[in-house]
Description:
By secondary structure, this protein is mainly α. It is built from 10 helices and 2 strands.
Amino acid sequence: MAGSPAGVTAKPDRRPRSRTLLVRVMAGAMLVPLVLAVNYWGGLAFTVFVCALAGLASHEFYRLCSADKLRPSSLVGMMGSIAVCFSFHSGSLETAGLVLTVLIILILVERLARQDTGNYAPAVAMTVLGVVYAGWLMGFFILLRNLTDLRGEGVSIAGRGPGHGYILLVLILTWSYDTLAYFGGSFLGRRPLFSRISPAKTLEGTAIGLVSVVAAALICKSAFAAYLSWAEAVFVGLMIGIVAQVGDLVESIVKRSTNTKDSSRLIPGHGGLLDRFDSLLFTGPVLYLYLKATALWMG
Length: 299
């Protein structure tokens, strides 16, 4: 390094990473209370908040597509994502499926009207994918928040209904995995896990994240998720941790395929909304499906 005395190895400057971590923590400290407050309110306020997230997430997705010189119908896709997400407020997957079907037809016709023969198939595919990725997957949080007591165990926190607790569970577990895997990988990571997709992901960070999410699941079981057995809490923790990693990798490969570092600069230290909520786009639907499947299995 220039300016270092002969024979002396200069220490790496850790200040940029320290500043990045500080910014991430400060941004999270502002974002987390907002999400928890909206979850506490529930109802239409929660639905509108989630729909706004879906619209912003789809905007970032189409921005990534545009960086790869694709030309999706961004405005139609954003409005479609919001519409599909809002349709989950009905509490019915069938209603949401009907809305999605109508939107797919509209997208096909809208692109047909442009007569863009060279870009028709990629544009339709990317527009529909944005609606599904952002609107459809985000909508499962609305279903999860509006769930009733599936197991007949009187699940409720502060009288806010079972859905309030289900959302808390998926948020705590997902954030536990993401946060501890990030810090563990940043300070202890040595061996890359998915170097072609996300070089920053390490085996050590993943292991720390999985241990942390299991511990968080056991704490949640003791605090408010008594409907889980101890063994089930361990299973749910591992399941959410693995799915969170998959969700993160999916967004990473989208960014890598479009040569983009962050989906946007909306959240200081975190990048865009997709960069912060990519894991939740997978863990929310998976927890909902798990709760529904186990409730059916238990009769």
